[in-house]
Every structure is written in C-alpha cells, then in structure tokens.
Automatic annotation (TrEMBL), chain A:
One of its GO terms (molecular function) is flavin adenine dinucleotide binding. It comes from Magallana gigas. SUPFAM superfamilies: Acyl-CoA dehydrogenase C-terminal domain-like, Acyl-CoA dehydrogenase NM domain-like. It comes from the Eukaryota. This is Acyl-CoA dehydrogenase 6. Residues 46-160 form the Acyl-CoA dehydrogenase/oxidase N-terminal domain.
UniProtKB/TrEMBL annotation, chain B:
GO terms for biological process: amino acid catabolic process; fatty acid beta-oxidation using acyl-CoA dehydrogenase. It is found in: Mitochondrion matrix. The keyword Metal-binding does not apply. This is Electron transfer flavoprotein subunit beta. Belongs to the ETF beta-subunit/FixA family. Heterodimer of an alpha and a beta subunit. Heterodimer composed of ETFA and ETFB. Identified in a complex that contains ETFA, ETFB and ETFRF1. Interacts with ACADM. The lineage of its organism: Eukaryota, Metazoa, Spiralia, Lophotrochozoa, Mollusca.
Amino acid sequence: MSTNMLLNKIVRPSRNFVKLGRQSKRLCSTHVERKKSSDNSNGLFTEEHQQLRDTLKKIIDKEINPYVDQWEQEGQFPAKKVFKTLGNAGLLGVTKPTEYGGLGLDYTYSVALAEELGNINCGGVPMAIGVQTDMSTPALAKFGSDKLKREFLAPSISGDFVSCIGVSEVGGGSDVASVKTTAVKKDGDYIINGGKMWITNGAQADWMCLLANTSEGPAHRNKSLICLPMNLPGITVAKKIDKMGMRCSDTAQIYFEDVRVPQDHVIGEEGMGFTYQMLQFQEERLYGAAATVQPLDNLITSTADYCRQRKVFGSPLLNNQTIHFRLAELSTEVECLRSLIYRSVGDYVSGQDMTRLASMCKLKAGRLAREVTDSCLQFWGGMGFTNEVLVSRFYRDFRLLSIGGGADEVMLSIICKYMNTLPKPPKQK
Amino acid sequence: MSGFRILVGCKRVIDYAVKVRVKPDKTGVVTEGVKHSMNPFDEIAVEEAVRMKEKKLASEIIAVSCGPQQCQETLRTALAMGVDRAIHVITEPKEYESMQPIHVSKILSKIATEEKADLVIVGKQAIDDDCNQTGQMTASLLDWPQATFASKIEKSNGDLSVMREIDGGLETIKVKVPAVLTSDLRLNEPRYATLPNIMKAKKKPLVTKKPSDYGVDITPRQEIVSVEDPPVRQAGQKVESVEELVTKLKEAGLV
C-alpha cells in the first residue's frame, strides 16, 4: 500500500477504473472445446479451482451464453437474475469474509473465476460481474463497518443486490483526484450533489460505492467512499450511454441533487476514500487481465478452425504460412501474458506488492487484446466484418480494455514510476 | 423411520462436449489431456439421491467410482453435490481399459451388501461405452428387484413407485426395497456444485479400495481387436425435381 500512496501522489491519474471497464476483457469465447491451457501447469491451482471452474462453466453454458445475443441486441442483460444464479453458487464472494456469506479464499480463486468468465460470449457480462466482485466491494469488505457490511456487502455476495462503483465523472475518469461530486455534512447526514459518468451496472444497481469530496483540502485526503442506496430521492439515472461495444452492459450517467444519506454510510475513515480506491486497483487490474486470456485463446482457436474450413484458391486458408505463423505468434503472446498474470498472483498471494507487475498485466492485456482481435478479424475476411460472428463483437468489446480501468497511458506512468523515469509533477504551491 | 442408505455409482467419462478421437494404433480412444467429468446419467443418479436425502427419505449417501486415480475428482464432485462419503475402487489405468460392466456390477453388489445399502442408483448407461448393463447386472447379483430408466421416483408406503420411460410411453411400477434403480435423462436436472460445497467436500471421507478387497477379479476376458472411426458420410447431391429424384433412385436400384 505504500506504493499505492506513492502512486497517488505522483501519478494520480489512477485509473479509476471502475466504470466501464476494466475488466471487460474477457470477451470472447467461442465454441470449440478448449484444451485447458491453464491446468495446473503453474502450481497455483488445485483440484478445487478446477471444480470451481467446472461449476461456472456449466452456469455459463446453460444460463448465460444462450441469451447473450439477445442481451446484446437489447442493450442490457438482466443483472439481477444472472447475479442471483452466480450468488447461489457461491461465486460472487470468493475472497470475501465468511461472516458475510463469502468464502474467505485467497486471490487465486478470484483469478480462476476471472479466467473462466472469459468463456462468456461477450465482454459486457463478465465486466458487470467484475464490477460487483472486484471493484465496488473490496474496500467495503476491507474497511467497512459491520453494519454497512451487513446492509450492502452480504446481499451483494448472495446476488440479491447489484452494485456499481461511482468514481468517474464528466470531468475525468483516469484522474481520480479531480472528482467534483460533494458530500456535505448536515444534521447527521451527508447531502450529495454532483454527478457520475460511465457507470457500469448504473441503470440496474441497488447501491453505489460512491467517491465524493467530504471536505475541502488536499485532493488526496478530502475524499470518502460512501455506500449510497440508488433508490434515494434526488438520484437521477439520466441515460444509458450508447456504446460501440460492451453493448449488453448498461453504462449510465447519473446525477445527484441534494441526495441525503446518513453519515454512517461512509466506508472506513472519512477522508481516506482516495487511498481506499487506490488499494482496490491492484486486484481489479489483475482480475481484468486474467479475464482476457481465455477469450483470446478461444478466438485464436476458432479462427484457426474457420481458416481450416474456408477454401481459397483451392486450398484451406489456414495453409498460408502468414496465417498459421501469425496465429502461433499470437498464441505465444497470450501464454506470455498468462504467465505474467500467474507470477503477479503468486507475488500477491504471498503478500508482496504487485503494483508494478499488475500494471504491466493490465497494459499488456489491453494491447494484446487489440492485436489479437484485429489480426483474427482480418483472417475472417468479410465474415469478420459482420455481426454474425464473435470475432467482431470481441473486436468492439475489447477495445475498451486499453481505456477502462486505467488507460494504457496510466499504466505506463505507474511502470515509469517504478523505473524512476517519471518526471516529477510541477510543484503545486 | 430412518431413511434409506443409498449407494450411487459415479463413472468418470470423457466430457460430453469433447470431440472423441481414436488413437492412431486403434486400441482405443485418446484419453490423455482430455477433459473428463462425471457420466451425466450418474450425475442425475446423484442428484436424485441428494433430493431423497433432502426430503428425509434417505439417511446417508455413498458414492462409488471404479477406475484410475483421477476418479477421485469425480467423487469429489459427487461429494460437493451432497453425497456423504465416497469409496474409490482403484485400478491401474491399463486394467481399467478392459474393465467391463460385469466387474463393476460385482464390485457394486459387494459394496451394497457390506454397507447395508437399501438402494443402489446408477445412471442407465455411461456415455462412453453406452453399455446399459451395470444396473441390471447389479440387481441380478444382489437378487434385488430393479427399476430401470426411471423418470420419477416416489416413496409409497415402504416401497417405491417408479415411472419409467418405455417405447410405448410411461409405465409405473412398484418395487420393494432393497432395489436397484437406474436413472433416465428426465428424472431431474442436476444442481451445480456450489463453491462452498466444493470446499466442504474436501473434508468428507473418501476411502480407497482395490477390486481384490471385494474379491473381484478384473483380469480381462476379452481383447479389443480394433477401434475405428465411424465411416465418413458421403457427400449428397441436390436434385431439381421429384422426377429427377425418382430417376436417380431407380438408377441406384433403390426403388
């Protein structure tokens, strides 16, 4: 956490990930049975991890993938229903404390879960799940009061509540310190005014983990995280934003006008909001990167299959060296990313700081996702340009990876910080 | 009033979603590095047993799997679904290749007797060899009544009334307990093993036995001569009209 603090000071532009997407990465998945590339080749995973993945796979095959096309068309997936199914299977609180319905397991389980979520045939649903499990709830689980955890965390783990995280605003996403929304104390309550932008799950959420300014003063010490029920008077969900990808995930713009919430809804200590928010970033980034590898793998496999069947000038397209070599190259890159993720997870689980590696994972995942989807789409030719195939959906959905959850450039700044190559910010007087 | 003690069979098979490939030497199919899972019909059997326990009709459920070491993964899944304890009858992978329903039936009947089971429930068949023999032979060895292809099981007085899918429709029969049942596809829809239950399953007892512990000799009595892919379907052709079709059929000597 000390690193986080550093980051804040220097690179404040931490991604505020939240909103859209960080995790969006998962995307694709295609059909095609996959060889399990993750097996226990790394020592991180046990038989229980595999069983967890099997259960999730069954839910995906039965309750999610058959409906994804419809959800994409409708521009929203039924978060309540899907989350309840996942909550019943114990999948929404893997690393959360057992007192609130979680399982208290280590982070490797979260990563196994994230990887398997990559078998969902779109980026939107896994992203929404990630917001619930790894973005809007970690700070509450770590620093929230018992009362707050009972009221908001427990139902989010059981799948009865849908949550969202309110950090980004119209004026800034990656620059978390520039948040303008205020929460002013009055008669034992906070009165909240302002607005949030790019809020994933925003149109369906029961509560928001809100970052707001609770006092004047230095930007890194005047903010607090507040559990905000979304049904309070004064909250307006202005619109669902029309996006290029992640179409089945609702992304909202939200306004607050004199919204009144009790002061005991603040998570942990007042003024620590920025710090808490920074702390959650590591897990989120890693989670996001982990959710990217399976879809990319699936995409490469399905592209090879397609090219094997498609005949051009009398022979399968796949026989062109430029194609099979390129796919081999991409597959190699994906395995490199997977290894980096596992290494980061290993560090994290053993209690070491993984900020640097996690930032690299996030950066690489975003860039590689663009590279793989673009290359594969090319091999699908005209078909790749239609909405009939998954590759085009992933091409659109995964573009977000380099933007949401801390843009590539923010990741680069963090890495530079660790390399001691980042220029110092101008002194603020 | 204590409920039945139920024995369920859990065969580990190649996952239904995997495209099965024949080994180049034609001695069998490729199993290495291939995803395996519990035979889906056995999953239905486990689910039914668990539901009976939830309805207080059963007091204890014991799962049995015969085969190599990895069968324990299958048993853990059964334990995560709600089975109380498991028995793994371990064999060498090589021996397992030649293991037949008769061997498994002998083992199951021996365990049923030893454990004083009131009911044995197994899938109607396994999706790998499609034998559809184990339940029937187990009933015969135990000299118990059997109710195969069950699509509904209800307790009526001390007995069971079982609805079965037969060619002409549905048949309901009554069987006296102890009995052997085999599950059909529509008996129930198996639950997911939830993560909390997967973790709890780690702590449930699983004992390992050998076929010889039950006095069963699994020396092969048959030899696999060759395993072949099914013939590839020939490409068809389109015809413009019924007349053309009839002409073609006549040419081919089919009408």
